[in-house]
Amino acid sequence: MNTDILLLSFFMGLVTYIPRWFPLAFLSRRRLPRWFTTWLDFIPVSILSALVAPALITSGEPRHMDILRPELFVAVPTFIIALKTRSLGLTVVAGMLLFWVAGMWLR
Amino acid sequence: MTAPAPKEENLAAVFKDGVKTAWPICLGYFPIGLAFGVIAGKAGLSPLDIGLMSVLVFAGSAQFIAVSMLTGGAGLIPVVMTAFVVNLRHLLMSSSLSVFLRDLGAWRTALYGYGVTDESFAVNLTKFRDESWDWRRALVVNHTSNAAWVGSTVIGGYAGELVPPGAFGLDYALIAMFLCLLVFQLRGPLYTAVAVVSGGVAVLFSLLFPGNFYIVAASVIAATLGLVFIRRRPGTPALQMGTEETKS
C-alpha cells in the first residue's frame, strides 16, 4: 500500500464529505424560511436537467456542441418511455438497449 | 427469547426495498467503476489503494481527476483543492435532502452525509417525495451504491479490460436514469420551465467554462428564476407544494 495515496485519499475524502454532511447537519435542525424551501423545491429538477442536457448535446474537453450523437437520438425514446411507464428500472434497461443498438448501427 | 418477528421482517423489507431501488445506480456505476480501476491501475495504484480511495472519497469524477492529475505529477494540495471544488455541488443536494431528514440523530446524519452522490440524491429525493420512504431505506440505497462503486473500482484494478467499452449500452445507464428521474420531477408547467432554463444555462456554461461549475451555476440560476416567478404571481396553479410545505 502506498501511504501517499492513502494520505491523498484521506484529505480528498474529507473535503468531499464536508459539503455532503454540512447542510444535513445544520439545515435539518432549523426551521427554514418559506422562500428558501420553495427555492429548494426547484433544486432537484434544476440539477437533473443541468446534469443531463450537456451530456446529450456537448462532448469533448473542452466541451463543444455535438448534436448528432446517439446520446441525443436515444434520449428521445428513453424520455418517452420514462413518461409512459414511470418506471426507473424499465427506462434504464430500455435506454441501455437502445444505446447499444444505436452504437452498432452507427459504427 | 421472544424477539418480535414483525420487526425482523421489517428490517428485511427495508433492506429489500433499498436494494431494489439502488440497482439502476449500481448498473450505472459498474462500467464507470471498472474504467476508473483500469486507469488508476495504469497510474500505479494497487487494487488496495484503489479500494481505499473509493471508500474514503466515494466520488467518481473527483477520483478520475485526481488520478489524471497524479499522472501529470501534481502534488497533494492542488488535487485536494480540485476535489473540493468539483464536489461542492453536493452542498445543494444535501440542502434539498435536509428537508426530508429532520430529527435524524447526529450520528445518522453523519452517516447519511457519506452517501450523498448525484445518483443517490436523485433517486432518494424522488422516493422521499413520491411515496412512503424513510431514512433507513435511503441509507440502504446509499450503501448499496457505495458497495457497487468500491467493488467495481477494485475489480477494474485487478482485471483490466474485462468488459469491452460500450458493451450492452452500460455507458448509457446513468444518462437514462437521470432522464427518468428528471421526468419524475416535472410536476407541472413551472417545473418544466425551470428544467428547460437550467438545461439551457448548463449547456451554455459547460461550453464557456472548464470543469463542472455549470451544474451549480445553472441550478442556482434556474431555481432562483422559479422562485422569483412564484413571488411575482403567488396564485400560480402550476405549483404543487411538497408535503413539508402544506404542513406549515
What does this structure look like?
The complex is a heterodimer of chains A (107) and B (248). With 107 residues, chain A is mainly alpha-helical. Chain A has one domain (3-105). Helix content of chain A is 79%, strand content 4%. Chain A has helices spanning 3-27, 34-57, 70-85, 88-106; strands at 58-59, 64-65. Chain B has 248 residues and is an all-alpha fold. Chain B is 74% helix and 0% strand. Chain B starts with a helix and ends with a helix. Mean pLDDT of chain B is 87; it is low at 1-6 and 238-248. Classes of the chains: A mainly alpha (107), B mainly alpha (248). Chains A and B meet through helix 1, helix 2, strand 2, helix 3 and helix 4 of A and helix 1, helix 2, helix 3, helix 4 and helix 5 of B.
Shape of chain A: extended
Rg of chain A, rounded, reads 20 Å
Overall mean pLDDT of chain A: 91
How many helix segments of chain B?
12
Task: Write down the overall mean pLDDT of chain B.
Answer: 87
Give the DSSP E fraction of chain B (strand runs of 2 or more residues).
under 5%
Ends apart, CA distance between termini of chain A: 42 Å
- Which bin fits the share of residues in helices of chain B? over 70%
- Structural class call of chain A reads mainly alpha
Order of helices and strands of chain B: HHHHHHHHHHHH
Compute the separation of the termini of chain B in Å: 44 Å
> How many domain regions of chain A?
1
Question: What percent of the residues of chain A sit in helical stretches (DSSP H or I)?
Answer: over 70%
Largest sheet of chain B: none
